[in-house]
């Protein structure tokens, strides 16, 4: 098959299904087809992702290709002037960017219902959400529109949609992948990662995008192993920890059963598992929403109607121009978080909220460190339930936030976590198994995930 054929297939599939899935916000058809042709002519098959059609979450900068963060504020941001580091790396390995993918506005959300365009839907059942915020990234892969996609994960936004859509999603260790060119939500938590159909594909993409980058001060100078070489299928002697909090009340019985079955598979492969405790995980949701909203309130201050995006036309002085651009440009959830974050950071409240949350974050990280003294991986469900219905939680932010309870601790601790499909609910929706590893030990996470697949 030629790259031209492969890319044409991608657009054909998008044409067939995307008016129901709404995974894409922007297509790159003319450029992608021209690039495919050029690749076919060059025949440089040495590149590790040669000719692979990819979709990119719309908060990752793509030079010359519209990047909106699914926000009205950036609706007219047609031409980012540079590529994110991950895009430079993927382009060096000759991918073809098919288009930009739907998400919750500025990556704030768990259902895609916060997209300021029509939100993406779950390809398994379009009455259900695909998850969020990287819902378009997971849906596009699940629906066969692209071979792989990139998402970003601040509190679960790669793993939760991967679980809801029955695909593989990896949030790497904080610092593993450069954030240069990722529109910042909460800088101490954000990581970019791959969403794919298989663990092997996932390992292959992370191999390309990982590594130190001088353009991101938090990017770690740690060697990147060949993740594809860790897929040995050998988990004999692997020590698995299963936090009791991850199978507690609130976790749906079908999800529990699927996870227990997965643990039986690991036993049959020679691994062992034991119940452990992450005692501070009950504070994770509150801690996360405090810290992430605080960071977001600072990061989103740059959207002032001057430098990027849409400027209000109704203001007659500068201060009103800032105010009106922000009140017209941002959606409801984004405003809610900016207000929460601004409050938490204001003098007089900083110690009581922000500083306290930072301390709890350390306790949550210590919980993981302690477990990893004795175990190789932590396993549990990715989400408490399979994909919920469109409209089911959108009017109740606290219920929506509670859905992130199993993914958020991983971001707070900075460790890597993957979601792999582990079964289906009775009504035919996928269930995700979450495998969490030590800092910078994505290799063991991939090996564990691949042996199960
Ligand atoms: N659902 C979480 C939130 O709304 C996580 C989002 C994310 O990881 N970007 O913040």
* Strand order across the largest sheet: 1-3-2-4-6-5-10-11-9-7-8
Tally of strands: 11
- Largest sheet report: 11 strands, mixed
The helix-and-strand class reads: alpha/beta
Number of helices: 14
N-to-C CA distance: 27 Å
- Summed over residues and divided by their number, the pLDDT gives a mean of 97
Oligomerization state: single chain
Structure notes:
- By secondary structure, this protein is an alpha/beta fold.
- It is built from 14 helices and eleven strands.
- GO terms for molecular function: ATP binding; glutaminyl-tRNA synthase (glutamine-hydrolyzing) activity; transferase activity.
Blueprint of the fold:
Blueprint: H1 3-21, E1 24-27, H2 29-42, E2 53-57, H3 85-92, E3 96-101, H4 135-142, E4 148-153, H5 159-165, E5 168-171, E6 191-196, H6 199-209, E7 239-243, H7 253-268, E8 272-276, H8 284-299, H9 318-329, H10 332-345, H11 351-374, E9 377-381, H12 397-402, H13 408-413, E10 417-424, E11 430-436, H14 442-452
This protein binds glutamine.
Glutamine binds at residues 107-110, 132-133, 153-157, 185, 292, 404.
Q: What's a concise summary of this model?
A:
The chain is an alpha/beta fold. It has 14 helices and eleven strands.
Features:
single chain; 453 residues; alpha/beta; 14 helices; 38% helix; globular; binds glutamine; glutaminyl-tRNA synthase (glutamine-hydrolyzing) activity
């Amino acid at each position: 098959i030629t790259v031209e054929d492969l890319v044409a297939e991608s657009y054909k599939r998008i044409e067939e299904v995307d008016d129901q899935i709404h995974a894409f916000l922007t297509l790159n058809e003319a450029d992608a087809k021209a690039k495919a042709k050029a690749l076919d002519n060059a025949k440089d098959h040495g590149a590790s992702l040669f000719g692979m059609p990819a979709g990119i979450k719309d908060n990752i900068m793509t030079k010359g290709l519209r990047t909106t963060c699914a926000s009205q504020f950036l609706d007219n941001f047609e031409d980012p002037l540079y590529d994110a580091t991950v895009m430079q790396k993927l382009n060096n390995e000759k991918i073809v960017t098919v288009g930009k993918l739907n998400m919750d506005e500025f990556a704030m959300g768990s259902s895609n219902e916060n997209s300021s365009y029509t939100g993406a839907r779950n390809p398994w059942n379009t009455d259900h959400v695909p998850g969020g915020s990287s819902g378009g990234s997971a849906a596009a892969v699940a629906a066969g529109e692209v071979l792989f996609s990139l998402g970003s994960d601040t509190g679960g936004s790669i793993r939760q949609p991967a679980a809801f859509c029955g695909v593989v999603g990896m949030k790497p260790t904080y610092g593993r992948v450069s954030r240069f060119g990722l529109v910042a939500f909460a800088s101490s938590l954000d990581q970019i990662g791959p969403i794919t159909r298989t663990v092997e594909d996932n390992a292959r993409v992370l191999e390309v995008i990982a590594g130190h980058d001088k353009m991101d001060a938090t990017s770690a100078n740690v060697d990147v192993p060949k993740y594809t070489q860790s897929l040995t299928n050998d988990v004999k002697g692997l020590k698995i920890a299963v936090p009791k909090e991850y199978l507690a009340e609130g976790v749906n019985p079908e999800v529990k059963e699927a996870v227990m079955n997965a643990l039986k598979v690991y036993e049959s492969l020679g691994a062992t598992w034991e119940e452990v405790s992450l005692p501070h995980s009950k504070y994770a949701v509150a801690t996360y929403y405090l810290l992430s909203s605080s960071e977001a309130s600072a990061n989103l201050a740059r959207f002032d109607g001057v430098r990027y995006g849409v400027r209000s036309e109704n203001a007659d002085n500068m201060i009103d121009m800032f105010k009106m651009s922000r009140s017209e440009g941002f959606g409801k959830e984004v405003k809610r978080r900016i207000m929460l974050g601004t409050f938490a950071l204001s003098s007089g409240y900083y110690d009581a909220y922000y500083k306290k949350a930072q301390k709890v974050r350390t306790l949550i990280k210590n919980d993981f460190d302690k477990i990893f003294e004795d175990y190789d991986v932590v396993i549990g469900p990715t989400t408490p339930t399979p994909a919920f219905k469109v409209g089911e939680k959108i009017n109740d932010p606290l219920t929506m936030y509670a859905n992130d309870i199993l993914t958020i601790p991983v971001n707070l601790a900075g460790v890597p976590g993957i979601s792999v499909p582990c079964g289906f609910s009775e009504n035919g929706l996928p269930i995700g198994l979450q495998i969490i590893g030590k800092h910078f030990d994505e290799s063991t996470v991939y090996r564990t995930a691949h042996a199960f697949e």
